[in-house]
């Protein structure tokens, strides 16, 4: 199974965005 560099980069970007969004939500919940 071969994964193209573009596909790998996109999945990494999606993972990063999910991580940032989760951290942002946790910070907001803690401030309430």
Compact description:
The chain is 84% helix and 0% strand. With 32 residues, the chain is an all-alpha fold. The longest helix has 27 residues, at 5-31.
Helix content: over 70%
Instruction: Give the overall form.
Output: rod-shaped
Number of beta-strand segments: 0
Largest sheet: none
Q: What are the low-pLDDT stretches, counting only 5+ consecutive residues below 50? A: none
Number of helices: 1
How far apart the termini lie comes to 46 Å
Q: Mean of residue pLDDT?
A: 87
- Output the radius of gyration: 14 Å
- What structural class should be given to the helix and strand makeup? mainly alpha
Pattern of helices and strands: H
What is the oligomer described by this structure?
single chain
Beta-strand level of the residues, as a percent range? under 5%
Account of the protein in words:
- This protein is an all-alpha fold.
- Helices cover 84% and strands 0% of the residues.
- The longest helix is centred in the middle third of the chain and has 27 residues, at 5-31.
- The radius of gyration is 14 Å and the shape is rod-shaped.
- The termini are far apart.
- The mean pLDDT is 87.
